[in-house]
Design goal:
- By secondary structure, the protein is of the alpha/beta class.
- The chain has one domain: TIM Barrel (Alpha-Beta Barrel), CATH 3.20.20.80.
- 39% of the residues lie in helices and 13% in strands.
- The strands form 4 sheets. The protein has an 8-stranded parallel beta barrel with strand order 1-2-3-4-5-7-11-12, surrounded by 5 helices. The protein has a two-stranded parallel sheet with strand order 6-8.
- A hairpin with a 5-residue loop joins strand 9 and strand 10.
- Helix 3 packs parallel to helix 5, helix 7 packs parallel to helix 9 and helix 13 packs parallel to helix 14.
- The longest helix is centred in the middle third of the chain and has 29 residues.
Length: 485
């Protein structure tokens, strides 16, 4: 007779916290010898239904280089974490953070991306941030590449389309692994690596003047170079400090078939495979067979060096992290009627939506955790999950965001259910603990945080930090290790 106790609570040492990206919070885009990043030449969307992440051309880049303001490029100003990091980290500590996910701006360390020596001023900034986190016992979880590669590499070699970018990246990772080997334990190589299929935001490669077929070739070749760079960085990091835990990161959205018709079920399976292709390589260490047909049907030919397959096999990650905001519905018709930005597939009539049209599906997170655990059997880490909403600072000086509390509560409940199901879940860093510039639209008005930042879409405001109602709620959640929701 088989009988084994199952976990009924979040494990001791669970990494509760919040997640951010350098290009969305830091600001200080042109100080201390920092170079321009790809994120800082992407214009603000004209309305929140638009996505500007990949609508970048050679002409728009030149226009951005000649424009030395932050008006049209809000990621240049962020929320000035660069000058407010002590205040912000103190607030995170007040909530009881065990972990804070942040990224290192590559162009703060190597301004053009290909210098022989790093920029000491940039390295010193992150030393100071990590020391401040250590003061409060907060573990940094560091993303090495989060949509912010040096623009110089785009101009010189079209970003990740060039294999030369692998060596540029490894020079960067060697420097930061070595510099922070005693200050950082948890690392991730690429944020949402599947974003490479969206174009410029993930690849740093300009391809807007190409045909769809040419774009796919560039994007999948670029992501191959990222796979190799990630695998080599994992090996490099473990050689520098064998205690490092280095993970991959996927933008995950479970896809449901629209009906029980087998053609819809198969269509949803294909969508799912195209998403999990990325983690199949980074966790399992090899290209999955199911992509061979996709590549052949789209005339994609991946150019590999002789030892690439061995590199991928030897450079698998220690854990799998992912973002989870929504689920999708797929039918064989290929129809896409999602109203919100970044919504793929069809609307699910059983789900409500956020202010930005993202469908809210807490149970989908439990489904995702179970599926990923069953498939990979490596520790999982939810490193992004949150609600972008129109928050109002009321006359009483407070933000009453009960809707955010409800959203997060329902997702945390499902994480606990997944742990009871047997999933090995190591942490949860919600997105983003403090209001920041939106990745998809460069808006400020799409707010996620427990902390309100007084700044509007045009950059006006005092930058004052104000605790929302959700701040005290999350503090209670962390104090109870997820028991008091």
């Amino acid at each position: 007779m088989y009988s084994k106790e199952f976990p009924k609570a979040f494990p001791k040492g669970f990494l509760w916290g919040g997640a951010t990206a350098a290009n969305q919070i830091e600001g200080a885009w042109n100080v201390a010898d920092k170079g321009l990043t790809t994120a800082e030449v992407v214009k603000k969307a004209k309305n929140h239904a638009d996505i500007t992440l990949s609508s970048v051309s050679d002409e728009s880049i030149q226009e951005a280089i000649n424009d030395h303001s932050t008006k049209n490029y809000p990621k240049r100003r962020g929320i000035d974490f660069y000058d407010h990091y002590k205040e912000d980290i103190k607030l995170f500590a007040e909530m009881g953070f065990k972990a804070f996910r942040l990224s290192i701006a590559w162009a703060r360390i190597f301004p053009q991306g290909d210098e022989a020596e790093p920029n000491e001023a940039g390295l010193k900034f992150y030393d100071d941030v990590f020391d401040e986190l250590a003061k409060y016992g907060i573990e940094p979880v560091v993303t090495l590449s989060h949509y912010e590669m040096p623009l110089g590499l785009t101009l010189k070699q079209n970003g990740w389309e060039s294999r030369a970018t692998i060596d540029n990246f490894l020079r960067f990772t060697k420097v930061v692994f070595s510099r922070y080997r005693t200050k950082v334990k948890y690392w991730m190589t690429f944020n949402e690596i599947n974003a490479a299929t969206w174009g410029f935001v993930g690849t740093g490669a300009v391809d807007t003047d190409k045909t769809t077929e040419e774009q796919l070739q560039i994007r999948y070749q670029s992501v191959h170079h990222q796979f190799v760079a990630s695998a080599l960085a994992v090996k490099q990091g473990h050689e520098i400090n064998s205690n490092f835990k280095i993970g991959s990161m996927l933008a995950r959205g479970v896809s449901y078939p629209k009906t029980s018709n087998p053609v819809d079920v198969r269509a949803a399976q294909v969508v799912d495979q195209q998403n999990l292709f990325f983690t199949d390589i980074q966790v399992r260490g090899e290209y999955p067979e199911y992509m061979n047909r996709y590549f052949a049907e789209h005339n994609i030919v991946i150019e590999m060096n002789e030892d690439d397959e061995q590199i991928l096999k030897e450079g698998t990650v220690d854990y799998l992290s992912f973002s989870y905001y929504m689920s999708n519905v797929t039918s064989a018709s290929g129809k896409a009627d999602g109203a919100g930005n970044m919504i793929l597939g069809e609307q699910n009539p059983y789900l409500e939506t956020s202010d930005w049209g993202w469908q809210i599906d807490p149970i989908g997170l439990r489904i995702t955790l179970n599926e990923l655990w069953d498939r990979y059997r490596v520790p999982l880490f939810v490193v992004e999950n949150g609600l972008g909403a129109h928050d109002e600072l009321e006359a009483d000086g407070h933000v009453h965001d009960s809707y955010r509390i409800d959203y997060l509560k329902r997702h945390i409940e499902q994480m606990k259910e997944a742990i009871e199901d047997g999933v090995d879940l190591m942490g949860y860093t919600m997105w983003g603990p403090i209001d920041l510039i939106s990745a998809s639209t460069s808006e400020m008005s799409k707010r996620y945080g427990f902390i309100y930042v007084d700044q509007d879409d045009d950059g006006n405001g005092s930058l004052k930090r104000i605790r929302k109602d959700s701040f005290e709620w999350y503090k209670k959640v962390l104090e109870s290790n997820g028991e008091d929701l």
